[in-house]
Amino acid sequence: MKRPEVIVYAESSVDGRITVAPDVLLLFGDDRWPSAGDPSEALAELRRLHSPQAILEGSGSFVPPGGESDPLPPAGDDAVVLCADTLFEDIPSRPGFRGWFVVVDSGGRIRWYYTGEPGREAPGSEGWHLLVLVSSATPRDYLAYLRREHVPYLVAGDERVDLALALHKLKTRLGVECVLCTSPGKLGGALLRAGLVDEVNILWLPFVVGGKATPTLFESPDLAPGEWPVRLSLLSVQTCAGGSVWQRHRVVEQAGREAK
């Protein structure tokens, strides 16, 4: 199945934590995280190197576990229409369009303020338009809400988003050749387990968090007896501002092969 190249970028403490506490959403900043609010030179360089047409995030970057969302009005559109891919042809042709900010949200949990529509662009993210990945089980009310907000979405999978199919649709329907995933926890772990990662970048920050429930890198199901770790080849190591260390790795062998 054709798909874009997938680059994963993570900022992590030395002990592998990607946030400071279980209920902290780093996407919105936390003063206890050293680089809070400041894009790293590593991330900027990755964007220059790969020129991604899509940035990929998970719903957990926006809504904490167990977080309640505001109720939505009932869907009035036809179910067949709602459950089909919904794209708006005017978006990619707009002046200044740079690419897609893609979020996995099959549960319909997020209520969007920044969508990329004129006047609703996130500061510093001008030109990136929201696109949501959903599944056939996503609530119809949420799909109708996205259509009202002029937010395109792709339907991939039955009970949850099928990441391989979603990436295939990004490539074949939208021409995306490279995806930069900046959600290295559960979403990064799911991509890794599915054999969908081509490059792993970790910016190791010089501090330690600790904790038992604090989110970590590549959270995913444990390896089964016949599964092997993903093997990496080191591309480069670079010391960055403040003592951070940026490691780039190329995936040379995906998980899932049988033990010999």
Descriptive notes:
The protein has 260 residues and is α/β, with parallel strands linked by helices. It has two domains: 98 residues, no CATH class; 123 residues, no CATH class. A nine-stranded mixed sheet has the order 5-4-3-2-6-1-7-9-8, sandwiched between helices. α3 links the parallel β4 and β5. The protein is globular, with a radius of gyration of 18 Å. The two termini are 26 Å apart. The relative contact order is 0.22. The mean pLDDT is 92.
Oligomeric status: single chain
Number of domains: 2
Q: Which descriptor suits the 3D outline?
A: globular
Give the uncertain stretches in residue-range form.
none
The whole-number mean of residue pLDDT values reads 92
The fraction of residues in strands falls at 15-25%
Keywords:
globular, nine-stranded mixed sheet, 5 helices, 260 residues, alpha/beta
How would you summarize what this structure contains?
This protein has 260 residues and is α/β, with parallel strands linked by helices.
Write the topology of this structure.
Layout: E1 5-13, H1 41-50, E2 54-58, H2 79-82, E3 99-104, E4 128-134, H3 140-148, E5 153-155, H4 163-174, E6 178-181, H5 186-193, E7 199-205, E8 231-239, E9 245-253
